[in-house]
Design a protein that fits this description.
The structure is a homodimer of 136-residue chains. The first copy, chain A, is an alpha+beta fold and 136 residues long. The first copy, chain A, is 22% helix and 40% strand. Chain A has 3 helices and 8 strands. In chain A, a hairpin with a 4-residue loop joins strand 2 and strand 3.
Chain lengths: 136, 136
């Protein structure tokens, strides 16, 4: 069902401070730093060999990420798997009775995405990503 | 510093129920199910193409995992990276001022392991793994 692990998303309070840890101390390579205004967050993708992490920090107290931080604190937030055809995967999951946050895909940073409800996956939120051709 | 992502560890309340989700509904392949008596947990390693997850459930209310569950609920618990030489990595991290749970390696399921303190990595606990030769 899942083609490959794309990244692990980690919510942090402040992106610059978190980059000091992950890039400067732990040696991850910064791939990309972007603002996602529609979600009121900024994010950084960092790589360590075969794997990528995404650090996500709120840019406004009204963002969902700010509420998440307040409730749960900093830490792992989601695991993103690439899929070949996001509509097919969503249909398969629905057929399996897996509760979804997004019944239909929406735009993400690197393609179309949809989130599986953490209640359906024992607290670990799964993001599905169908990458845009130019991000493959 | 990190050779490759080895697995993502997810704490769950009950291993059988979680396997119904991850193996039966999400299509992960069960690699190995084991009891770890010294930690009072049982664990299952599951694979989806390029990535592995470890589901961890307490077998006794006295386990650290049971206390974690009570406090934080089910969800992502740690991210495990393979390293070539765990002593060298621990020394590098200490030199960087990164707070460690384990100053010296201990036995894990697949080799020698050590945990970085989640306070040092913005709430995301990192496990270092130097694999035993026969697990490579």
């Amino acid at each position: 069902m899942f083609t490959r692990l794309d990244h692990i998303g980690i919510v942090v309070a402040d992106l610059d401070t978190a980059l000091q840890t992950y890039r400067d101390r732990l040696g991850f390579t910064l791939l990309e730093r972007i603002e996602i205004p529609e979600q009121l967050v900024e994010a950084a993708f960092l790589e360590a060999n075969n794997s990528t992490i995404e650090l996500i920090a709120p840019t406004d107290t009204a963002s969902g990420t700010a509420r998440y931080l307040e409730k749960r604190g900093e830490g792992p937030h989601h695991v993103c798997y690439e899929v070949d055809d996001i509509e097919v995967t969503l249909a398969e999951l629905a057929q399996q009775g897996v509760q979804l946050i997004d019944e239909t895909p929406r735009r993400g940073v690197h393609g179309r995405v949809a989130f599986v409800h953490p209640k359906a996956t024992h607290g670990s939120m799964i993001e599905l990503l169908e990458k845009d051709a130019h991000h493959k």
